[in-house]
Amino acid sequence: MKKIYKKSKIHIIVIIFLVFSISLIGCSKEHNNKDINFENKKENKKENKLENYKEALQVEKVKDESISQIKVTNKSSFDVSGICLIYDEVDKNNNVITNSKNLIDITLNPSKVVYSQISTQEYTKDINITGYEYSYKEDRVFVDLNKDTVKVGINNVKTENSNPYEILYTSDINKINESKEGFTYEIKVKNLSQNDLGNTTLKLAELNDKGEYIKITHTISSNVLKSNEKAKIEITSSKDAKDLKLIGYIYDDINNKANVDIDLQAHKAKINK
């Protein structure tokens, strides 16, 4: 009887051990499956992000126009800044003369269009856009059109909220003269801060009748603008411009020995001391 009892006890222990082992294996498999699913989700999220970055901008040469005019459309749902076109200049035999970069100094909001005029060399027959770069938040995105690849680095341009630095009052832009060469506008500015401002530069965008940015210009006023002082600044535009928009301004904060670059499109400021 005792032998039977001992055998039964051994059988029970073996069964318990087997059940426990199977449970452990099941838990381990479930845990591994969760890890795999988590890694797959991470990888898919990364791939989707890269794909969105790659498709953010549509870059194309304008048909029936100068070879040096490039149209850039923001196809994404986010603001894009620091756009830099990378291109080759080629001769009539399609040999590369030089490769260059062209910076577009505007933050491009979703669905907006900007045209970039590229100055080419004397023997350039055509240009080939090989890629482009842009910034979005902390990321610097590099798109290689030849290889159809995208890489993401760190955006080294540090910005902060521009509200504390938007110390220049600006009036509406009024047209005061018109000629065959273009238009002359006037804008009134006032220094709202307690500090003197030097080398005030207005960043302006010319717009066509579709609201597309056709040219980015900088108008510099070298006069020192004292605290609460007002000034009038004249601006000239091309004859193709149907409207003019202030997209930002730059000034030297003389008292704090800082150069401040205001982006009114993104409401960000770059501070250089």
Topology overview:
Elements: H1 2-54, E1 57-61, E2 69-74, E3 81-90, E4 96-104, E5 113-117, E6 126-136, E7 139-144, E8 149-154, E9 160-161, E10 168-170, E11 174-178, E12 182-191, E13 197-207, E14 213-221, E15 230-238, E16 243-253, E17 258-263, E18 268-272
Antiparallel strand pairs: 1-2, 2-5, 3-4, 3-6, 6-7, 7-8, 9-18, 10-12, 11-12, 12-15, 13-14, 13-16, 16-17, 17-18
What multimeric state do the chains show? single chain
Contiguous low-pLDDT stretches (5 residues minimum) are 2-6
Secondary structure: helix percent: 10-25%
The fraction of residues in strands falls at over 45%
Largest sheet: 6 strands, antiparallel
Order of helices and strands: HEEEEEEEEEEEEEEEEEE
- Per CATH, what is the topology of the largest domain? Immunoglobulin-like
The number of distinct structural domains comes to 2
Give the radius of gyration: 30 Å
Number of helices: 1
CATH class of the largest domain: Mainly Beta
Strand numbers in spatial order across the main sheet: 9-18-17-16-13-14
Write down the overall geometry. globular
Mean pLDDT: 86
Number of strands: 18
- Proper CATH architecture of the largest domain: Sandwich
